Amino acid sequence: MPFEALVAGCLAYVALMFAVAFAADRAAARGHVRWLDHPLVYTLSLSVYCSAWTFYGAVGYATRSGLEFATIYLGPTIVCAGAWWGLRRLVRVARMHHVTSIADLISARFGKSNPLAALITLIALIAATPYIALQLQSVRLSFEVFATDSPQGNPLQGIGLWVAAGLALFTILFGTRNLAADERHHGVVTAIALEAVVKLLAFLALGVFVVWGLADGPVDMMRRISAASRDAEFSEGWLLKPDRWTALIVVSAAALVTLPRMFQVMVVEAADEERLHVAGWAFPAYLFAMSLFVLPIAVMGRHLLPADANPDLFVLTLPIAADRDFLAFLVFLGGFSAATSMVVVSAIALSTMISNHWIVPGWLALRRRAAGNDRPDEDTRDVRGFVLNARRIAIVAVVGAGWVYHEASGGAAALAAMGLVAFTGMAQVLPAMLGGLLWRGANRRGAYAGVGTGFALWMIMIFLPSVGVGVMPGLPADIDPLAFSIFVSLAVNTLAFVGCSLFGFPDPVERLQGLSFVSSVEPIRHSRMRQSDDRAEPLLAMSRRVWGADAALRFFQAEAVAQGKSGYLPDLTPRFLTRLERKLSGTIGAATAHAMIDRVAGGAALTVSDLLQVADEAQRAKEETQRLESATTELARTATQLREVNEKLTALSVQKDAFLGQISHELRTPMTSVRAFSEILMTPDLSEAERRKFAEIIHDEAARLTRLLDDLLDLSVLESGRARMSYGVVNLHDLIVRALSSASATCPERQFTIDRDIPTEHLAVITDGDRLLQVLINVISNARKYCDADRPVLSIHVRRSAGAGAHIDIIDNGSGIDGARQSLIFEKFSRLNDPARAGGAGLGLAICREIMLALGGDISYLPGQGGAAFRIRLPVKPPLNSGASSGE
Amino acid sequence: MPERPLFLERASFRRRRLGDAARILPVLAALVILAPVWWVPALVSSGGGATAFFVLWALLIMAIRVLHRALLRAEAATMRAQAEAMHDDDGPAARDKDGTHAV
């Protein structure tokens, strides 16, 4: 393939990437984020893990060390197996705190300490520079492979510089479009997702070509691999060493969450943790697909290519040797994609860290010193432009450092070794990160101690030897130096972290942050603002300098509206300050945001007693909720009671209306007769007999009217509880005898057989004899009136009650009262038979019941006795307040 | 504030147990990946061993996928159960709503 064609194709590909990034940014700006937001795009963007080190280096690694190359992908697989509770939680906490980078995460957790973030930025930069150099080197090497058959002399002069400059330009264009570093870079992410597809397709195409084109299918391929693994000379380093295996898996697992570029795509660019549901399995599957053909390519490369060929470039030299120009170009693009995407994302992540943790805090400190430290809010210069420029400069610096390193080192080292240096360096951050997320007791001193010792050990044992400065101290031959260094540095790091955490007492801000990170609850900002003066305006001025006037005013107005205020100045509530600080920290990092707000708003330092007050407030809020809840239940209970009472009242009102209707009717009938017959009497020509007859009728009707009115009066007196009772000792036998004789006046024509047990009747009770007699007469008269048996029998039984008092059962042998009407008989004006036959107003049993209640007993209908049966129950002695209680 | 419930409904119970499985899975994955190399490094280093290792890896990825899908389904089922309980009455709703926080 001619070199010019390659360059042209490569430039076309670069142009495509610019176009895709531009289009995605445009789409996002217009709000069309549906496909940009797809979990698959997120998963593909994670593949920035597979840099050129994977693409070219994995085959070289496999050639030298066999299956060990897979450790780099197995570590992330293990982490992804825990994505559901591990990564999801990391993403949730980071999003909650608007974290902009791994350094920002750790600094925010440990009390928003900027020096800690600056230290981590230093480690990340030192680790990343050779790694970026490695990407540039791989691009240069791949160009060289094609350039060997170029007729021109040396077309590669400065290719590394051109690539670096192009990448820096791309990163500045699409990586610094928005100021908020925690906002998503849709253009970059989409371009990276596309590059991930190219990478995967290129590698799979090559693998398929190797297995089915060069070898004779998978069976043949496996035979060849087995043969190779038995060949002592070929598989010299292939025997797996358990210590190296374990150490590399640990480091690669750590790399997935600690490498700045991985943190950027996995945490900062994630809209929410839902994305991980797909990425949790799809990303390991991507890694699996990328490693599937590594061993076949390595074995075939060794078989087919000359012995001095660079195994790191087998992926390119194999298709070139087989004269597959297009495949070679595709593979070249794949490698180019891997290298460029890694550099772009690393540059974005590192530039954010450098500007947020080095440049901006330094600049602010310098200005403060220059301003004389007394009038902090008077400075109105724009921080916004400065932050963006700082980031752009940092991007150029990061990529430039990689290029300088590449030029200086001459690109001799094997690719894999350089990648591992970066992995082990960032792994030193892992203990502080894990501890910070899982252990509330972890504190800043521990984090400094752990990260610091880990950094020092890494420099001495891994980094410096890798760049040829100093050597590892001698180790026994059977100990692997890399595995040893990894274990020792991580172990000492963890010990220092835990040890210093155990012996320290964290400051209150740190404890608040610890609570928020470990329990993943909303963070609370609690600083003692001077309540009296209005500090919202300086805060607005400061925010305007960071975000620009419009954005700041929008935010403040929204907050004021949320507080129920009009205008642009909300009250400085803890809630508002928390939100303001978090939004600021999304732009300039947690530590700087915290410092700026404290400075402008004049907050005093937080003390332990403030912390206790926060806990107190939480407790009080909880108690308040509990109180409210019990009040609610109480209210519900009262409402139910009220409803019941209301129903009763309605029923009573209906009853009263019915009663009035009844009474009018009952009074009206006799009155009509009286009036009619009086009118007749007034006619002059009446015989004496007629006159007497009509006068009798009038008399009878008047008597009936009187009886009715007596009954009503009686009932009303009883119901209102004003009835006077005259108690005395009464023998029930006497009463029954009197009642029977009185009642015999009713329907005197009927002969009743009376069934009595005289001896048991001799029972003395204290009660109102006359009233009880009235009840007995009424019940017995009713029996005489209504008993429909041919040979009527009336049984009267008196029995002493088990508890106390006595009861009298009066039973006839008629047809009784059917069930549905039993409940009605004690109501006023209830007449079961036709009124003419009864001859009364239907008040008798109602009066009986009222009398019995007044006497402290009751009267009830006994069902199932073979006829109408009433039971009159008497207490031993009458109620004390008989007058008052009877009507209830 | 309602007390933490003693027993959960079927949907929440199942989701809780799947959550336990999701905690065990990475430990299991680490064991499966580390143990063979510590135990029989020579065997894993051979061609057949490498093939077997890739099969194991593929199975592991499938296990992650199956578990994640089950968890998503269980979460959806819990949501549904909650929504139904809300419609039903206040009693069961309060029970399940709090159930999501209990361990």
UniProtKB/TrEMBL annotation, chain A:
<dbReference type="Pfam" id="PF00512">
    <property type="entry name" value="HisKA"/>
</dbReference>
<keyword id="KW-0175">Coiled coil</keyword>
<dbReference type="InterPro" id="IPR003661">
    <property type="entry name" value="HisK_dim/P_dom"/>
</dbReference>
<dbReference type="Pfam" id="PF02518">
    <property type="entry name" value="HATPase_c"/>
</dbReference>
<feature type="transmembrane region" description="Helical">
    <location>
        <begin position="188"/>
        <end position="215"/>
    </location>
</feature>
<dbReference type="InterPro" id="IPR036097">
    <property type="entry name" value="HisK_dim/P_sf"/>
</dbReference>
<dbReference type="InterPro" id="IPR050736">
    <property type="entry name" value="Sensor_HK_Regulatory"/>
</dbReference>
<feature type="transmembrane region" description="Helical">
    <location>
        <begin position="446"/>
        <end position="464"/>
    </location>
</feature>
<keyword id="KW-0597">Phosphoprotein</keyword>
<feature type="transmembrane region" description="Helical">
    <location>
        <begin position="6"/>
        <end position="28"/>
    </location>
</feature>
<dbReference type="InterPro" id="IPR036890">
    <property type="entry name" value="HATPase_C_sf"/>
</dbReference>
<dbReference type="GO" id="GO:0016301">
    <property type="term" value="F:kinase activity"/>
</dbReference>
<feature type="transmembrane region" description="Helical">
    <location>
        <begin position="40"/>
        <end position="63"/>
    </location>
</feature>
<feature type="transmembrane region" description="Helical">
    <location>
        <begin position="326"/>
        <end position="350"/>
    </location>
</feature>
<feature type="transmembrane region" description="Helical">
    <location>
        <begin position="390"/>
        <end position="406"/>
    </location>
</feature>
<feature type="transmembrane region" description="Helical">
    <location>
        <begin position="283"/>
        <end position="306"/>
    </location>
</feature>
<dbReference type="InterPro" id="IPR038377">
    <property type="entry name" value="Na/Glc_symporter_sf"/>
</dbReference>
<feature type="transmembrane region" description="Helical">
    <location>
        <begin position="116"/>
        <end position="136"/>
    </location>
</feature>
<feature type="transmembrane region" description="Helical">
    <location>
        <begin position="245"/>
        <end position="263"/>
    </location>
</feature>
<feature type="domain" description="Histidine kinase">
    <location>
        <begin position="662"/>
        <end position="878"/>
    </location>
</feature>
<feature type="transmembrane region" description="Helical">
    <location>
        <begin position="156"/>
        <end position="176"/>
    </location>
</feature>
<dbReference type="InterPro" id="IPR001734">
    <property type="entry name" value="Na/solute_symporter"/>
</dbReference>
TrEMBL record, chain B:
<protein>
    <submittedName>
        <fullName>Uncharacterized protein</fullName>
    </submittedName>
</protein>
<keyword id="KW-1133">Transmembrane helix</keyword>
<keyword id="KW-0812">Transmembrane</keyword>
<keyword id="KW-0472">Membrane</keyword>
<feature type="transmembrane region" description="Helical">
    <location>
        <begin position="52"/>
        <end position="72"/>
    </location>
</feature>
<feature type="compositionally biased region" description="Basic and acidic residues">
    <location>
        <begin position="85"/>
        <end position="103"/>
    </location>
</feature>
<feature type="transmembrane region" description="Helical">
    <location>
        <begin position="21"/>
        <end position="40"/>
    </location>
</feature>
<feature type="region of interest" description="Disordered">
    <location>
        <begin position="83"/>
        <end position="103"/>
    </location>
</feature>
